[in-house]
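Q: What would this chain look like folded?
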Amino acid sequence: MQTDKRYWYRLCYIIFLPNCFRQRNKLNYQNQRLIMKQQIARWLLLIAAVALISGSGTGCKSKTKDADVKAAAESALAANPDLKGLSVDVKDGVATISGEVKDASAQAAAQTAVAAVKGVKSVQNNVSIAAASPPVNITPDDPLAAGVRDATKDFPTVTATVNDGVIAVSGELKADDWKRLKMALDGLKPKKVDAAALKISK
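A: My prediction, written as C-alpha cells:
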C-alpha cells in the first residue's frame, strides 16, 4: 500500500508539474508581450515627436525672407506707371508703402498691388496724394494798382490801395455796388481783397 501511494505521488508529480511550468511560462509570455507593446508605443511617440520638430524646423526655413518680399513688392509697384517712384519696406511680413501719387485711385492701386505679393501679411499705406490745384499766378503790384484804379473809378466813395498783392478797400458802398466792384477786383487776381474797412449799406 505504501508503495502504491508513492507510485501515485510520482505519477501526479510527472503529470501536473509540467502543467505548472507551462502556466508560469504562459504568464511570462503575456507580460513580455505587454511590455513589448508599451515599448513600441513609446518608440512611436518618440518618432512622431522627432518628425514634428523636424517639420517645424523645415517650415521656419521655408518662410519667405523680408528682402525677397520687398523685391517682389517693388516689382509689383514698378509694373504700374502710375505707381513709379513709390518705395516699400518690409519687416516681419508687414509692408510699408511711402511716396506720392496723382490721385486716390493710384493710392488704392498701390495698396492692392503690394497686398497681393506672396509673403505680405499686412500693408501700411503711407502714400500721399499730390495737390491737384495749380499754383495761383499773382499779379505784380504795379499792374495790379493800375487795374484797381480802373475798377474803382466809377465808385468815388471808395478808396483802394495795393500792398504785396493784397487790395485793401475802404470807404462806403451799397451792397449791389460792392458786389460789382468785388467781382472786378477778383478778376485782377490779387492775393486777397480786404474789405474790413469798407462800410456796406443796403
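Residues 2-62 form the longest helix (61 residues).
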